[in-house]
C-alpha cells in the first residue's frame, strides 16, 4: 500500500501539532484504562477505604465461573446475529435504493432515522411492542398460538434484543453499503450485461466482491457496536434477564461494578473486553485493510 | 431590546441577592431517590423546614433509583464530593454499616451536636433493622414500608365470594383464586410485586423461619443463607403450580414492574405489594373498590403469623464535612422525626409511621378510621414481638443476592428447575456473595 509521507523540516513542530490529541488520549483513555488495569488486580471495598493486592485472583475466578463463560457464548451469539441480520437487511435496502433515480434521496433519509434514535429509546420502543401484557406483537402471536413472554423465556428475550439492536444498526450499515454501491464502476456492470449476465449473477460476481472492503469494515464496526453500544438496549428491555439469558459481557461489567459494587471483578471484565477490542482493531488494520484490495 | 436587557439585569440582581442571602446560611445537601409524587412531597417537607428557620438551608437532589443514588454517593465519596445526607435502601444497609470510616452514625451525630433525640420513641420493628449489635441507631429511618395484600372487592363479589373477607391463609387464597378464575370474574387469581422481598424474605419472617444463620446476619459477617427450608420450598412449588394452573401471574423481577397493571386492569383479583403502593392503588383503581388484608400464611405452621419485616430506605450521614453542616443535619433530623412531619409523610405516602408519637397523632386525628386499610401495615409489623427470625435481615452484597433470587425464581417458573433445586442453587450462589463480602471487609 502506498502512503504519502509529508516531511517536516522542523523537528519540534510535528510533536507540537499532535500534542493536544495526545494529551486528550492520555487523559481520557490511557489514564482511566490504566486505572482499570490497576484495580483489576485489587480487592477493594466500595468506598475505597481499604485496598488489597490480590494478583490474578479476579481473572482466575472469572474464567472458572460458569456465569461468565456463559456470558461470553451469549455475547458471541448476540454479536454475530445482530451483525448478520443488520448487514443483510442493510444490503438489500441499499441495493433497492441504488436502483431508484429520483426518490433515492427521500428513501435514504427515511432509512437513516432509526440511527438518530438513542439506544435506550430504541429499547423502550421495542419493549412496548413486545410487552407481554400490553404489547401488540404478543397479541398478534397469540393468534398463531405462540405464547410470547420474554420475561421468563430466555430465547425470546435474546430474540427481542437482537431485533432491537439490529433495527437500530441497519441505518448505519445501509449508508455505507449505499456509498459502496455507488462507487462500483457502472462500466463493469454494463460490460457484464452485454456478455449476457443477469442481475443476480452480476450482483454476486461483480458488485458483491467489489463491496468486500466495505463489508469487512462494517463487520468489525458491527461487532464492536453489539459488544459495547447495545448497553442501553439491554438495560431498557430485559435488564440482562431472565435468569441472565441476555446478560452480555458489557452489561455484566455494569451490573457487577455499578449495581453490585464489586469493582475488582468489574475492572477485570472491562480489561478483558478491552483486549477484545484491541484484537478486533488489530485485525481490521493488519489483515482486512491489506488483504481486501482490488 | 431595552426591555430585554432590563429583564436580564433584574434577573442578575435577584440572583446576586439570593446568593448573598444563601451565603449567611449553612448549606446541607441531601441526595434522595424519591421520584414522582413522593419526590414532590419530600421537596415540600424540605421547603417547610427551610422556611421554618434561617440558620440552615437543606437542598434535596434527586439522583434516580435507589441503586443509582447509592452508587452516586459512593463514587462521590471516593472523589471527596459526597453529600451530607444520602438515602439508602434497606438492601444497602450491610454495605453502609461495613463502611465505618465513611459514615457518621446517627446516634453519635445527634449526641455530638447536642440535638434532642430519643431512640426509644421509634417503632422497634423499624429501628431494629438499622441498629448495631449494641442497640445504637446508625441511620435515620425515613421511609419504611411492609408488604400487604390488596384485593378487588367487585371481582370477589362477581365470583360469589364475600366482598369484605380477604383470604387469611394461602390455602384460602388458592381456593379463592380457583373460584375467581372458574367463574370468569377475572383472568387470574393473584399477582405480586417483589418476589424476593415478599415471597421469600417476608414469607420466612411471617412464618418465623430463618432467612439466614447468625440471626439473619445480625450476628456477624460469617452468616449463611437458609431459605431452602421445607416451608420456602413448599411455597415456591405452589407458586409454580399456581402459575401453570393460571391462578398466579408473574409480574417480573425486582419490584415486579408488570404486577400493578395486572391488578389495575382487573386482570388479577388479588395483589401483594408494599404498603407504600397504597396511594398508587387508590389513584389507579378507578372502576372498582379495593379491600386490604394482611399477608396470607400456611395453616398449621407453628408460629405463623409472626410479624412481617420492613423494606424502604433510611438516611445515612457521610463523613468529611465541617461541623456546622452536621449541626444542620442534626437539626433537620430532629425536624424530620417530629410527629407532625412524620404523620403527614406517613399518611400521604403509605409508608409506616416511624415513631409512636406519629402513630398516636394519626389515631387522634381519626385518620385510620377515615381511611380503611391504612393501618394494616402497622398492625402487621407489630403483630408479635419480633423473634431473631423476624426482626429483619442484614447481609452484605445483598443487592446481588436479591438479583440471584429473581434469577432462580425465573428458572423455576420457566420449568428449568424444581423449587428445591432453585432454592438450593440460590443458597449456594448467595453464600458465595456473602463470603466475598466477608473477605472484602476483614
TrEMBL record, chain A:
Q: Where in the cell is it found?
A: Cell inner membrane; Cell membrane
Where is the chain membrane-spanning? 12-31, 76-98, 110-129, 157-181, 202-221, 268-288
Q: Does the keyword Lipid biosynthesis apply?
A: no
Q: Which domain of life does the UniProt lineage start with?
A: Bacteria
Give the principal location in a single coarse category: membrane
Q: Where is the ABC transmembrane type-1 domain?
A: 72-284
Topology term for the membrane: Multi-pass membrane protein
**What cellular-component terms does GO give this entry?**
plasma membrane
The protein's UniProt keywords, in alphabetical order, are:
Cell inner membrane, Cell membrane, Membrane, Transmembrane, Transmembrane helix, Transport
Q: What's an example Gene Ontology biological process for this entry?
A: transmembrane transport
**Pfam families, from UniProt?**
BPD_transp_1
Quaternary context: The complex is composed of two ATP-binding proteins (UgpC), two transmembrane proteins (UgpA and UgpE) and a solute-binding protein (UgpB).
Its annotated function is as follows: Part of the ABC transporter complex UgpBAEC involved in sn-glycerol-3-phosphate (G3P) import. Probably responsible for the translocation of the substrate across the membrane.
- Protein family (similarity comment): Belongs to the binding-protein-dependent transport system permease family.
The protein, known as: sn-glycerol-3-phosphate transport system permease protein UgpA
> What is the species of this protein?
Devosia oryzisoli
The gene for this chain is ugpA
TrEMBL record, chain B:
Where can this protein be found? Periplasm
Record's signal peptide: 1-24
The UniProt entry's GO CC annotations, sorted and at most eight, read: periplasmic space
Q: Which domain of life is it from?
A: Bacteria
CDD domains referenced in this protein's UniProt entry, alphabetically:
PBP2_UgpB (cd14748)
Asked if the keyword Aminoacyl-tRNA synthetase belongs to this entry, the reply reads no
Q: Which InterPro entries match?
A: Bact_solute-bd_prot1 (IPR050490), SBP (IPR006059)
Print the keywords alphabetically: Periplasm, Signal, Transport
The answer to keyword Signal applying to this record is: yes
Pfam families hit by this protein = SBP_bac_8
Similarity-based family: Belongs to the bacterial solute-binding protein 1 family.
The job of this chain, per UniProt, is described as: Part of the ABC transporter complex UgpBAEC involved in sn-glycerol-3-phosphate (G3P) import. Binds G3P.
* Assembly, per entry: The complex is composed of two ATP-binding proteins (UgpC), two transmembrane proteins (UgpA and UgpE) and a solute-binding protein (UgpB).
Protein's name in the database: sn-glycerol-3-phosphate-binding periplasmic protein UgpB
Q: What is the species listed in this Swiss-Prot or TrEMBL entry?
A: Devosia oryzisoli
